[in-house]
Amino acid sequence: MRLLRPMMLLALGVAALAARAANAAPAAQPVTIKLATLVPDGSVWDKILKTMGAEWSQETQGRVQLRIYPGGVAGDEPDVVRKMRLGQVQAAALTTAGLSTIDPSFKLFSIPMFFDSYDELHAVLAKMEPTFKQRLEAKGFVLLNWGHGGWVYFFTKQPVETVDQLKKNKMFVWAGDEAMTALWKANGYHPVALAATDILTGLQTGMIDAYPTTPLLALTLQWYRSTPHMVGIGLAPLVGGLVITKQAWQKIAPADQAKVLAACHAAELTLKTEVPKQDTTAIGEMIKRGLNVTRVSPAATAEWRSAAETFARSLRSATAIPEILDMGERERNAFRQRAPAAAAGGAH
Hints:
Layout: H1 4-24, E1 31-37, H2 44-59, E2 64-69, H3 77-86, E3 91-95, H4 96-102, H5 118-138, E4 141-156, H6 163-167, E5 170-174, H7 178-186, E6 190-194, H8 199-205, E7 210-213, H9 215-220, E8 229-231, E9 236-245, H10 246-249, H11 254-288, E10 292-294, H12 298-318, H13 322-338, H14 340-345
Parallel strand pairs: 1-2, 1-3, 5-6, 8-10
Antiparallel strand pairs: 3-9, 4-7, 4-8, 4-9
């Protein structure tokens, strides 16, 4: 017993030291996610991203930090995707153009006049989200939420009502997607491939005469001053997505991943409600400052729809994603059958 007592005391002492050492171990280093985006600093999208980032930090007690690089300071979207693959940035808020450089399935959202309303878009996204997520994850990326940019229209230097008039314009298309540029050319347009960050310079130098964008972006970036005419027929919703590299995502603890996703979902809901309202308001604000919205006659509208269908057929034959295009069309048509009144309204 006399021998056992010192041994027991020694064991207790070792255990106490081990516990003290464990308590003194340094806390895990916070994960800092660098996020690049083209959204302008101070815009509605930027403010929502910053609010989301603050929630990441607050909900994870600082274990996950978000550092945002807005306004294209990290480069155009294809540049940002390349930097994500190199690990220079870990996340990005991208439009369809950037998402398509990761996986071509997102070209579905590049088809003009494929959707007639936000309700159609949201219904298709809800059904196809698992497919898009799987395709992104196969390329090493994780989709955190969807982004919404508004409804795209053509802005031009001279009035444009018909498709033939648009074809006479030098039209901006996103640099880095040679297949889409070739597709526009094959359909009789005059595309000029530029980085999105060079649109204003292209307008000022005469490189381009027209570009597709949302009213809210045209107002925010003041592009409409160089193109005081807007074609009065909507083309498509500007779809975006917040993606993070799988490598960076796996550095975040599962419990914190859940908190990050909750904040991302809240940001998506805010974008979903706020952007369409501000997009509509932006048209009125630009009209007050000299924008002319060119009325499109019923006959010209039919021509625009016919041209859009031709473009969709060209896209189907030029890409390796016919199953995605079929799925999108099937889900859209199914929604129209369920809600014919909403679909017929075409309100976006």
